[in-house]
Amino acid sequence: MSGFRGETLSWEISGGVIELKLHREPCNEIGSKTLEELENFCAALEAAKKSAGALIIYSAMPAGFSAGADLRELYRRSQPLPPAERLAAVRDFLHRIHHVLNTIDDAPMTTIAAVHGVTFGGGLELALACDMIIADKTARFAFPELRLGLIPGFGGIPRLKRDLGNAIVRDLLLTGRSYNVAKAQSIGLVSQLAAEGEALRAARATAAQICKFDRDTAIVAKRFIKKVPYEELRTEIEIFCELFSRPAVEEGLRKFAESTDAMPYLP
Q1: Could you say which DSSP state residue 180 is in?
Q2: What is this structure's pTM?
Q3: Within 10 A of 238 (CB to CB), how many other CB atoms are there?
Q4: Which domains does the chain have, with CATH numbers?
């Protein structure tokens, strides 16, 4: 697995650790280009499975880890299409992003999300695909999709339920509010808390420790304790698509896309 630098993300491998850096302004919104480059990363990840012991995903953007799906792009690309084609395009995007996150979720190496600032929607779903989340004290976590009449569509509900249970899913999903890092750590969402700007350093130290151990044992242990909830993930896609076809959702996306706020996703 050689290094790569794209428009929205980059990766490199050193000492048995892969580092995937997100660097799309303003806050790593996940649109078509990011998805394309994530798919390229997953193809490269396949070749690195035998040599890498850990993967770290982090952001170079000051605003945070990721604000989630690029809803402005989603709206603008889908609007000119007839309703059936619009829904088909959304479904295709969801299947593709699910494949990416399932690949990260099921990767044999230990995966770490090093997060700070905004970790919302699809950004939180990306972090949840990792084995552990290490967060600095600025991190905030939320599923704001309900404000648009939607549910998280990148696999967040099944993964959050797998890791933390239904009570946390209901609170995050139905209220749309954000958790600060202290709350996130208290419920078990965050495994390590770092000082501001220190999440990546802590993740690198953790990855170095992981790579000292027998890799085959770590792979077996991960397979035993972490199952990918494929059936529920498929159901989530169907529910999202059903909701997406409603006129109220289209109106909510229109208002979002036309907003002049720099970060309209903030609570």
Answers
A1: E
A2: 0.95
A3: 11
A4: 4-258 (3.90.226.10)
